[in-house]
């Protein structure tokens, strides 16, 4: 039997279907199904119960899966350690990152990283979905908010701060001198944040917390990028992460309002994290990328 057959079998259990494995490996589902069937023939046992709705492990399949999975992990680790002896990093580095952070912060840094490691292939999985690092074979993840997975290592990368901002055109027509003014001017809300229609402010110098402000949200968006574009179009004031709008503020396309105050959402995420699977051995390619991020955002 081939190692690839074992990998396909394990991935089928982890991902739940032949179609998901086929999509990941860029094969057709028939080839994936045939690979598992060939493995069953070689073993002389049935590993999977197949139905139109789902795949389930047989009793023998469960035992086999529990034994094979750690063997494959140790094999991958051995291969990685052997490759790390080389002076140049090679192979593929898989990184997952939220959409907004990727566009405004990470992607502009990629050319610099690739110049340092030209033989290393890079796969960017840009999504706001919290992908499973182990199942998806992801080397490094960037996540916003609380990290609850026990099998992840998490290192803080950035404190998450918010900036209330609007376009220059919008501010020509609206006066905003104190947080209470946001109750009467058009505002752009972010649906995913807790208590999205309540914005909190505290004095920057005194750190005095003010009451939550029920802002006049005339527009709501599920994504921060959309809220930023609406803000640039002069549609209202938005409370957005600093890393998402700092360039636009620097270029004069957006202007910070209420600069004497710090705005935030109640119970909002406090940090941006670098995450990676909790393993005995961290590959050199992962360490290089983590060190690069820490250096760039120091």
UniProtKB/TrEMBL annotation:
One Pfam family per UniProt: HTH_1
Gene3D superfamilies associated with the record: 3.40.190.290, Winged helix-like DNA-binding domain superfamily/Winged helix DNA-binding domain
Keyword Transcription set for record: yes
Residue intervals of the HTH lysR-type domain: 1-58
Database matches in CDD domains: PBP2_CrgA_like
Family annotation (PROSITE patterns): HTH_LYSR (PS50931)
Keyword Transcription appears in the UniProt entry: yes
Family: Belongs to the LysR transcriptional regulatory family.
Protein name (Swiss-Prot/TrEMBL): LysR family transcriptional regulator
Biological source species: Thiomicrorhabdus marina
């Amino acid at each position: 039997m081939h190692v690839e057959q074992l990998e396909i079998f394990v991935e089928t259990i982890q991902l739940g279907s032949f179609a998901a494995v086929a999509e990941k490996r860029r094969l057709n589902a028939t080839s994936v199904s045939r690979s598992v069937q060939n493995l069953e023939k070689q073993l002389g046992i049935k590993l999977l119960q197949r139905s139109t709705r789902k795949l389930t492990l047989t009793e023998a399949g469960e035992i086999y899966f529990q034994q094979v999975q750690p063997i494959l992990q140790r094999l991958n680790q051995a291969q990685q350690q052997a490759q790390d002896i080389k002076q140049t990093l090679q192979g593929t580095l898989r990184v997952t990152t939220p959409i907004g952070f990727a566009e405004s912060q990470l992607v502009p840094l990629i050319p610099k990283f690739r110049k340092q490691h030209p033989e290393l292939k890079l796969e960017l999985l840009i999504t706001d979905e919290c992908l499973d690092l182990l199942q998806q074979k992801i080397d490094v993840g960037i996540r916003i908010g609380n990290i609850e997975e026990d099998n992840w290592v998490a290192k803080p990368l950035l404190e998450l701060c918010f900036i209330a901002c609007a376009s220059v055109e919008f501010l020509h027509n609206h006066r905003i001198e104190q947080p209470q003014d946001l109750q009467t001017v058009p505002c752009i809300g972010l649906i995913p944040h807790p208590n999205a229609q309540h914005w909190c402010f505290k004095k920057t110098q005194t750190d005095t917390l003010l009451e939550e402000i029920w802002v006049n949200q005339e527009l709501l968006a599920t994504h921060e990028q959309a809220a930023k574009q609406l803000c640039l179009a002069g549609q209202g004031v938005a409370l957005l992460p600093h890393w998402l709008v700092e360039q636009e503020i620097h270029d004069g396309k957006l202007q910070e309002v209420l600069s004497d105050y710090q705005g935030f959402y109640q119970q909002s995420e406090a940090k941006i994290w670098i995450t990676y699977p909790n393993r005995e051995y961290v590959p050199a390619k992962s360490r290089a990328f983590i060190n690069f991020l820490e250096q760039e955002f120091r």
